[in-house]
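This week, study the protein below.
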Amino acid sequence: MILVIDVGNTNCTFGLYQNDQLTNYWRLETNRLRTADELGMIVLNFFGHAKIKADHVTGIIISSVVPPVMHAMTTMCTRYFHSQPLIVGPGIKTGLNLKVDNPREIGADRIVNAVATIEEYGKPAIVVDFGTATTFCYIDEKGIYQGGAIAPGIMISTEALYNRAAKLPRVDIAAADKVVGKSTVSSMQSGIFYGFLGQFEGIIREMKKQAGTDPIVVVTGGLARLITEKSDLVDVLDPFLTLKGLNLLYKRNKTV
């Protein structure tokens, strides 16, 4: 079994692949203070609950946008799974041509998502990931990664609204049926929902206009379904896009 790990700013996602099938997955809060032993015990508890033994893991791959977590994460892999993980970064074979000013600046998660999108859904494509930040990536008809856009994420934006506006409460993020709210809470929910929906559709339209093509639009991330459910611009909703990309990259880089 292949253990794939995506370390994001808010959550770490773990997945197990067997014969290219995702058999199990778990999410864990990203905590920069957590030790390798704490991580090991948590992950082994995940495995125990699923009745999977640690020695069933034959390989591990990690993508991360949180460098301070990586020492504990890689130590956990070697100590508890006796496997040196493959890290998505410079030197790894991705098969992806990055036509950007500085390829090293591109987050590992964006690269992994692009690889998965090309393999699963074709090209040209726009990949949108609703994570801590909302990222938009454009892949042209030749499969070249041309760059994209990065916007503040939904959760950090709503937290900023609550923290910086003294009289506004913290609200649940929910789909709003009407844009005109009748209370403070419904008005906030409307503004959040339609605001991010408008951001999503506006950036997609501008990307298509600039590219002069009609790319497939693939969305992923925790709040992707909620925000895009009223949009006609979404072609594919894939909550496991990043895990699929990690599995693909492991196969491309494993020793034969």
Remarks:
- Helices lie at 36-49, 70-81, 108-121, 154-164, 184-211, 224-228, 241-253.
- The longest strand covers residues 21-29.
